[in-house]
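Thread amino acids onto this structure.
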């Protein structure tokens, strides 16, 4: 009888360990998938930017500093592709700021606003920015679930034994990104 109780306890313990391990693997895979989704959208964004810059350049050739800033920010964002989420988010936030400058320049040229290519590129970039925001939220939700699982019982006991480590959030680090936009009517 004691042998049967011992076997049942060992089997139950094995089921708990296997279940906890499989749950952590599943959550870690979701984090990886979500980060990959961000990667896809950021690549799309990076691919749209040169076309947008070239379109604006034709109308605002004397705004060289803005074009250089956008080009450099894009290069930095692409280079940060294999960096940790925090460094990558910082590079992407710099690119977002540079794009804001580019759109500010574009607003100064009404004839540019009427060009269909500029409209299409702007709409594609806006849609991509929305997809990036969604992908970031999904990634951060996956990170939250994974990190929570790593810190709750019973996975907290087995997580570090099996080499699971918490993931980083993809966060906005620029204070300008956190500010509420100002709307002014002139």
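Threaded sequence (186 positions):
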């Amino acid at each position: 009888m004691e042998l049967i109780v011992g076997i049942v306890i060992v089997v139950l313990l094995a089921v708990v360990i296997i279940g906890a391990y499989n749950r952590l693997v599943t959550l870690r895979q979701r984090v990886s998938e979500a980060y990959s989704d961000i990667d896809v959208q950021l690549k799309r964004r990076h691919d749209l930017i040169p076309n947008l810059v070239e379109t604006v350049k034709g109308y605002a050739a004397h705004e060289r500093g803005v074009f250089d800033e956008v080009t450099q920010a894009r290069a930095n964002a692409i280079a940060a592709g294999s960096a940790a989420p925090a460094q990558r988010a910082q590079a992407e936030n710099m690119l977002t700021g540079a794009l804001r400058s580019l759109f500010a320049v574009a607003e100064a040229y009404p004839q540019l606003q009427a060009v269909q290519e500029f409209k299409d590129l702007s709409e594609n970039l806006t849609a991509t920015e929305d997809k990036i925001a969604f992908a970031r939220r999904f990634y951060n939700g996956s990170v939250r679930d994974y990190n929570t699982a790593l810190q709750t019982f019973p996975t907290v006991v087995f997580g570090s034994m099996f080499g699971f480590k918490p993931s980083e959030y993809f966060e906005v680090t620029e204070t300008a990104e956190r500010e509420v936009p100002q709307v002014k009517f002139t």
